[in-house]
Amino acid sequence: MLTYEEIKNNETIRTYIRKADQSLVALGFTEHSFAHVTLVAENCGYILKTMGYSDHEVELGKIASYLHDIGNIVNRLDHSQSGAVMAFRILDNLDMPPEDIAEIVTAIGNHDEGTGTPVSPIAAALILADKSDVRRSRVRNPDTTSFDIHDRVNYSVTKSQLKINEEKTLIKLKLSVDPHYGSVMDYFEIFMQRMILCRKAAEFLGLQFKLIINEQQLI
Questions:
Q1: Neighbour count for residue 34 (Cβ, 10 Å)
Q2: Residue 188: Cβ-neighbour burial (10 angstroms; 0-12, 13-18, 19+)
Q3: Mind listing the pLDDT tens digit for each residue in 35-82?
Q4: Maximal CA-CA distance, the chain
Q5: Helix H or strand E encompassing 172
Q6: Phi and psi for 28 in degrees, rounded to 5?
Q7: Within 13 Å and on the Cβ side, how many CA atoms surround 20?
Q8: Does the pTM of the predicted model rise above 0.90?
Q9: Burial level of 140, CB count in 10 A (0-12/13-18/19+)?
Q10: Residue 8 CB neighbours (<10 A)
Q11: Residue 11 contacts by C-beta under 8 Å, 6 or more apart in sequence?
Q12: Rounded to an integer, what distance in angstroms lies between the CA atom of residue 196 and that of residue 173?
């Protein structure tokens, strides 16, 4: 079986992730490089493992998460679809079984809020892990006076935690937000569609999705 660690250490894949993020630097986007994909992989694995999915499914979810943004090397527009096609070719060349490739490609192709749908457990877990990655360290602009709304929202988040309760009925995204840099309204302006997709993904896994900002439940 092709493992997550082998994917992480594959220099070709690392080159694609690095180059894809360079394109997003040029476009003024927040960080989408190794810190992002590794955190998404860890959270995707946590969701699947906590909800009782097999070790094999957890591994596939982590691989899908690590590869999910490589399509940005082609174009930001429809990057989930181009990334899915790229992942298919990479994994096929690495002799991964077709059943496993299909799971990963499906998840990558459905992770973006513009076109994505939680059509499988791995796709649902990837959506939740990806859309919950909001944090100060994703901001690359060193000048706080020239922040755009994405910079403001990410920089305002001083703490972020994604957690499933012991009863496995709720998944909560808890954020601590410094209103000096961004407001709750700013957050909803750019994240509302993503939070709706998170709710759908949670429901697919048999969970309720809750968004809590500064100890106040908003969704």
A1: 14
A2: middle
A3: 999 999 999 999 999 999 999 999 999 999 999 999 999 999 999 999
A4: 51
A5: strand 170-177
A6: 85, 20
A7: 29
A8: yes
A9: middle
A10: 17
A11: none
A12: 13
